[in-house]
Automatic annotation (TrEMBL):
This is F-box domain-containing protein. The lineage of its organism: Eukaryota, Metazoa, Ecdysozoa, Arthropoda, Hexapoda. SMART domains: FBOX, WD40. It comes from Bracon brevicornis. The keyword Magnesium does not apply. Pfam families: F-box-like (PF12937), WD40 (PF00400). WD repeats lie at residues 112-151, 152-191.
Length: 214
């Protein structure tokens, strides 16, 4: 077990091409890679460090198979992650090709308001786009029709950062506050006043949130 652990740690630093090659060296190396779930760990490393991978993981839904499983759930086997990796690479290559060749459909949302047309931050999924604006509001847009379906008001300064999940939208503003909104109703449920300057960025995950200010 000790030697397997050392081998697993060393092999976990390999990139995809090297990991494929290592599997072909011998049955023992293949076993170490398989039992160590090294393809899963490689994908997780990519998702942690690359925004494109992170975006695809969230949009395609395979992020649910990564990192720590939810209570009562177990992760897929090694073969699933080994087959998932080339599928992800094809997706990324298609995105890169479309971007370089201009194979995309451009759509615009008119964010003009009485005070400003500036958009400082946004996050989106297949159903909606959530944007933070300079006019102190958060606007939620239908992803298909591009029509504004909800406006969240409460900040007294520009909305500089936001993040949401199925339950909440959390936003940071130049008014030095962090506000928590019900993702379904749009109701403001909490206001955090712990910064003395504008809140520039925030991230939350697994019940923990990190915020930073000017």
């Amino acid at each position: 077990k000790g030697l397997d652990h050392v081998a697993e740690n060393i092999l976990s630093y390999l990139d995809a091409e090297s990991l494929y090659s290592a599997e072909l060296v011998c049955k023992e190396w293949y076993r170490v890679i398989s039992e160590g779930m090294l393809w899963k760990k490689l994908i997780e490393r990519k998702v942690r460090t690359d925004s494109v991978w992170r975006g695809l993981a969230e949009r395609r839904g395979w992020i649910q198979y990564l990192f720590k499983p939810r209570p009562g759930e177990t992760h897929r086997n090694h073969t699933f992650y080994r087959n998932l990796f080339p599928t992800i690479m094809k997706d990324i290559e298609a995105l890169d090709s479309n971007w370089r060749m201009g194979n995309h459909k451009l759509q615009k949302i008119n964010c003009r308001s009485e005070n400003s047309k500036g958009v400082y931050c946004l996050q989106y999924d297949d159903q909606k786009i959530v944007s933070g604006l300079r006019d102190n509001t958060i606007k939620i847009w239908d992803r298909n029709t591009l029509q504004c379906i909800k406006v969240l008001t409460g900040h007294t300064g520009s909305v500089l950062c936001l993040q949401y999940d199925d339950k909440v939208i959390i936003s940071g503003s130049s008014d030095s506050t962090v506000r928590v909104w019900d993702a379904t109703t749009g109701e403001m449920v909490n206001t955090l006043i712990h910064h003395c300057e504008a809140v520039l960025h925030l991230r939350f995950n697994n019940g923990m949130m990190v915020t930073c200010s000017k």
